[in-house]
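Thread amino acids onto this structure.
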């Protein structure tokens, strides 16, 4: 598995389709305010994606992401997630994300990777868990 880093302009060509396939909902490309996207690929086939926004030079926020159907529920999902976290760890000191409280696969991944739940937010009828990981 390899990791591809995309600029906001590059990602905008794929963001609507990626979000639609992963979350089964439309989200226009111009909604994204990201600094970069990470895509984990296996044999040139996208497995997962993660969009990121830098808060400062030491802190990155994972704004969106998920596994494509070819990867969902397979060992590649964990491997790809960790590949992306390794990239973030090499470039930042800490990471945050918000996870919908009933997204159990992502909650399990975050906890297994060492994220701590540090808060709760409510948005558009969703309960979001604020999660934080200090890279060591």
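Threaded sequence (136 positions):
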């Amino acid at each position: 598995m390899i990791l591809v880093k995309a600029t906001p302009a590059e990602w905008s060509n794929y963001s609507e389709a990626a979000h639609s396939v992963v979350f089964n909902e439309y989200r226009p490309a111009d909604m994204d305010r990201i600094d970069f996207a990470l895509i984990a690929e296996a044999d040139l086939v996208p497995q997962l994606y993660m969009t990121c926004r830098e808060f400062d030079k030491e802190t990155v926020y994972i704004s969106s992401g998920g596994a494509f159907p070819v990867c969902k529920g397979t060992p590649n999902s964990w491997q790809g997630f960790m590949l992306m976290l390794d990239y973030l760890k090499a470039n930042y000191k800490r990471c945050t994300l918000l996870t919908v409280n009933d997204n159990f696969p992502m909650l399990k991944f975050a906890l297994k990777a060492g994220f701590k739940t540090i808060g709760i937010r409510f948005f558009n009828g969703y309960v979001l868990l604020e999660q934080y990981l200090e890279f060591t």
